[in-house]
């Protein structure tokens, strides 16, 4: 009962209903070239979900909802590296969350991850009939019809939000007290990041949250006349030329890597992947170039065991133009933490985070020392 295709030709809601009506068991895999999500079905019900987007990992999701802090996340990830246990079990054993809270957050995480799929404009999907993970799934059960209806509602809501917040580079500005009457910790954490200078993207990074989650909160405050949007920042990203094929982008990535421009090499790899997300041969080629990028970073001294320190006067950073990713990484440097420790709490994919460190070193803002 396998099925595959593109979300442009078969709507996600139709796929879900088809799987639910057939009471099937298996895994629905959806990819947009940057993120891969796997939704697990048993007898037509959704029983779990995972994603390659770090912000949707359980630890980061718990941070974004105020259940744990970054220090607890780092400790749990460190223990996971040593023991191989599931991070949810580790957090329960450490007393960071209760079993009941973990169950509730796992269900909420799965819902949010699936709802975000409805906002994808393009993507490839395939259903792996009868295939479920070899490891034991923490049992949850989501009604497909309810999930579908909420997903469709969010598409309409996102269109309204986008009219107010056209991009994540926009800057929200408070015109009245944003925290008045707010009791939810996750919402307060987002609103506390509004300082009339941070972009939506920066707020997402600082709170480990999705763009939809942050934008919805800001939109609601704007509807209550407590917030407005000003000074949208537009950071130009080199676009691929019309008709540029994935193979050409892959070739360009290799050329940039030979010039030791790892940032542009990685950008072109991501663009190539987004053009042909289901091309397995291309995927292998991309992984090969990613390995070469890691090797170049190691040659430049950017390794997990290195300890980053700010170079020069830290006060001077306030007047510099930094990307949201650079701002996040810089704000976590200090206290003797090595790169590996910072990577554990970063909502960025590891390779992207390492490239940010490389950029900061190259710009003379950071030094990496070894004990």
Please describe what this structure looks like.
- There is one protein chain.
- With 371 residues, the protein is an alpha+beta fold.
- It has 4 domains: 3-159, no CATH class; 165-230, no CATH class; 246-299, no CATH class; 307-369.
- Helix content is 49%, strand content 12%.
- It has helices at residues 12-21, 58-64, 70-83, 87-93, 99-117, 144-164, 185-191, 200-207, 211-223, 246-258, 262-275, 280-299, 324-331, 339-345, 350-362, and strands at residues 3-6, 26-31, 36-42, 45-51, 124-129, 171-174, 227-230, 307-310, 366-369.
- A 5-stranded antiparallel beta sheet has the order 1-5-2-3-4, with helices on one face. A two-stranded antiparallel ribbon has the order 6-7. It has a two-stranded antiparallel ribbon with strand order 8-9.
- Helix 3 crosses helix 14 (339-345), helix 8 (200-207) runs parallel beside helix 13 (324-331) and helix 11 runs antiparallel to helix 12.
- It is globular.
Quick synopsis:
By secondary structure, the protein is of the alpha+beta class. Helices cover 49% and strands 12% of the residues. The relative contact order is 0.11.
In the predicted model, the low-confidence regions spanning at least 5 consecutive residues are none
Question: How far apart are the termini?
Answer: 56 Å
Number of strands: 9
Order of helices and strands: EHEEEHHHHEHEHHHEHHHEHHHE
Shape label:
globular
Widest β-sheet, arrangement of strands? 1-5-2-3-4
Count of structural domains = 4
What is the alpha-carbon Rg in Å? Answer: 21 Å
Q: Which percent band covers the strand fraction? A: 5-15%
- The overall pLDDT, averaged over residues, is 89
User: Count of helical segments?
Assistant: 15
Coarse structural class: alpha+beta
- What percent of residues adopt helix (DSSP H or I)? 40-55%
Main beta sheet: strand number and arrangement?
5 strands, antiparallel
């Amino acid at each position: 009962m396998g099925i595959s295709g593109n979300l442009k030709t078969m709507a996600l809601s139709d796929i879900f209903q088809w799987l639910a009506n057939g009471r099937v068991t298996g895994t629905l895999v959806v990819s947009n070239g940057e993120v891969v999500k796997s939704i697990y079905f048993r007898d037509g019900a959704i029983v779990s979900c995972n994603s390659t987007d770090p912000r949707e990992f359980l630890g980061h999701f718990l941070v974004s909802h105020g259940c744990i802090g970054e220090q607890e996340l780092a400790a749990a990830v460190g223990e996971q590296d040593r023991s191989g246990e599931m991070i949810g079990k580790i957090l329960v054993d450490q007393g960071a969350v209760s079993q009941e809270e973990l169950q509730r957050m796992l269900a909420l995480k799965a819902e949010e991850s699936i709802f975000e799929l409805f906002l994808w404009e393009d993507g490839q999907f395939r259903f792996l009939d009868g295939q479920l993970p070899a490891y034991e799934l923490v049992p949850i059960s989501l009604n497909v019809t309810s999930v579908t209806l909420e997903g469709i509602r969010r598409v309409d809501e996102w269109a309204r939000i986008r009219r107010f917040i056209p991009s994540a580079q926009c800057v929200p500005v408070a015109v009245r007290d944003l925290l008045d009457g707010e009791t939810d910790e996750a919402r307060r954490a987002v609103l506390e990041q509004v300082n009339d200078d941070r972009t939506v993207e920066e707020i997402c990074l600082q709170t480990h949250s999705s763009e939809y989650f942050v934008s919805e909160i800001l939109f609601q405050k704007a509807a209550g006349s407590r917030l407005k949007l000003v000074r949208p920042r537009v950071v130009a990203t080199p676009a691929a030329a019309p008709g540029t094929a994935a193979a050409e982008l892959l070739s360009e990535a290799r050329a940039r890597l030979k010039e030791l421009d790892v940032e542009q090499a990685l950008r072109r790899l991501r663009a190539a992947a987004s053009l042909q997300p289901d091309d397995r041969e291309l995927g292998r080629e991309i992984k090969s170039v990613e390995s070469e990028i890691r090797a170049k970073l190691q040659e430049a001294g950017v390794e997990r065991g290195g300890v980053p320190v700010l170079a020069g006067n830290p006060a001077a950073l306030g007047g510099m133009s930094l990307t949201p990713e650079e701002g996040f990484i810089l704000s976590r440097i200090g206290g003797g933490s090595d790169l590996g420790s910072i990577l554990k709490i970063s909502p960025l994919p590891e390779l992207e985070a390492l490239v940010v460190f490389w950029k900061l070193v190259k710009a003379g803002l950071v030094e990496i020392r070894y004990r």
